Amino acid sequence: MPPSSSWTVVVPVKGTPESKSRLGGDPGRRLQLAEAMALDTVEAAVRVAPVLVIGGDGLSSAFLQLGASVMAEEPGDGLNGAIRRALATIEGPAAVLLADLPALRPEELEAALQEGIMVPDAEGTGTSLITGRVPAFGADSRRAHLALGYRELDLPVTSGLRLDVDSPAALAAIPRERLGARTLRLVRQPPR
Fold this sequence. Notes:
15% strand; single chain
């Protein structure tokens, strides 16, 4: 499916050894997994709309090869600050998609791109997608986004838009056939 809509999707990527710290284990392997999930997420998103990745400095060339644009994170940005800075460069409808959705399918994202919605994560406390310009990511972001007036998009917990990975259990719960190629390759590879 070629990129369609007038939407632009912002994907914040931390891309540091501290990435995905709740996964535990070796920091190098965690970073590899975070990078693989980000690349799989962006690969699905660029098939739907233009993508602007903010951060992920070590992966800039890989994101560019996928067809995304890249903007460097600035010191002191923080997650929501970086997102706001990226959104300020976009004209027209914008969405923010988190980068830990390795089971995302393009058709799921395309169906979700409608004004003023948010998609909760699998746990039901966080947010994996907003379609708007006021981010409130962080602890209990679902409640924060609802308080800002976002409408919750009712999706099954099996949707790739809800299957975020914040823990080993969350990753293990995703059927292997749903994982993006890079994430699947790492999951199949035993830790060193």
